[in-house]
Sequence to fold (446 residues):
Amino acid sequence: MVRPRRTLVSLACAVLVALGAGCSTSDPSPQGGGITPSAEATTLTPSVSPTDPVQPPPPRGQRIRSTFFGMHDGLVSQGRAPDAPIGALRLWDSGTSWRDLETRPGGFTWTTLDTAVATVERMRARPLLVLGQTPTFHASKPREEAPYGAGAASMPDLGAWRRYVTAVAQRYGDRIDYQIWNEANVVQYWTGTPRQMAQLTLTASKAIRKVVPKATIVAPAFPLRLESQQAWFADFWSLQSTRVDLAGAVDAASVQLYPSAEGLPEDQATLLDIAREVLAENGIDLPVWNTEINFGLQGGPEPPAIPAELQRAFLMRTYLLDAGLGLPRVYWYSWNIGRIANTYLTEEDLTTETLAGKSFDVVRDWLEGTRVEGCTLGDREPGVWECVARGEGEVRTFWWKPRGPAVRVTSPDATSWSDAGGAVTRCRESCRVPVGATPVMVVRPG
Fold:
């Protein structure tokens, strides 16, 4: 008999409850991808006659492509590219917002965005442009203060918005992907209503697809760590049930899975479950992108420092977990981040890689090209997480233990295991692997 396993959602829910946050423990929606169901779950299989050819089951999980490994870096608009294997780059805090491009009514200056797009393409990565924020002269509330300037967070003139997104689409076509707005449920970035944001979404989608029919358009980004943010997210997507076809206007939903300031990478699962439940309730079947992630954010004050080894663990666990959760893209914030989070990929010179920065290369080597079947809290050893990925002729299993002392876990048929630094240990007949807060990879024949 196979014992059932606890899912990512149940453990992460317990973590958030312990932190005093709300939590949903309902099952993920069918498009959730990557969460392994209980071994005792029952599935209905259509009957097959003895003469019918037996069809192989469809592959489980998601194939990890290069664009899964997303990043932010504001310096690309200056022509400086990170020395890292980045597959997608989100243009935010890079001097490429609407306010930066349209410097006078109807007058566009493309220099910074041209440089940013060319730099990202030189990296062989995919650019994602965030289309806000409102120039003061197009703002419905031009005197309203906002972090990016007066009127930036207010509803724009709809005609000006249409002309702007059309101009962007005409200039860059299918060279870039398009995102409607950043953090529409955070008052510093948007002071309009959900319905107004839906209006911007529909208007931009129609304008872009008139120029670029096969453009990839991403819904506004929504952080979810506060209950008020979750409610705003639900209000926005509930418009789908009022004949506002948001799902038809975009190709992906967008969340930012920042946990609480004391949170762990595993807490992302509960927030993603909340998002997928809202989408399912409104009959929406869209892939979900994680367009910003880091840890320790407190909304302004510099967070307490954490050890370099824990920073490395956080980054690697994020990409492993999000692969198991079925997220097609994950954008770390940021390669050159200021001291607003606790996990840094570069030193003060914004070039020298930290331990966490170096681990980005390792986790990409571990995952790219594999099909990740899911992540669970495994039954090999209490408290040990396990993600499983299938590559060419081999199975890769990733283990870590977020809390408590490290343990040793035995894999009888493994041929090798690798640590977070990429060092490989060969095994005879079996591997006995030290497992702590930082992930390890165990390889066995496929």
DSSP finds ten helices and 20 strands in the chain. Confidence is low (pLDDT under 50) at residues 1-54. The longest strand covers residues 217-223. The CA atoms of residues 288 and 358 lie 27 Å apart.
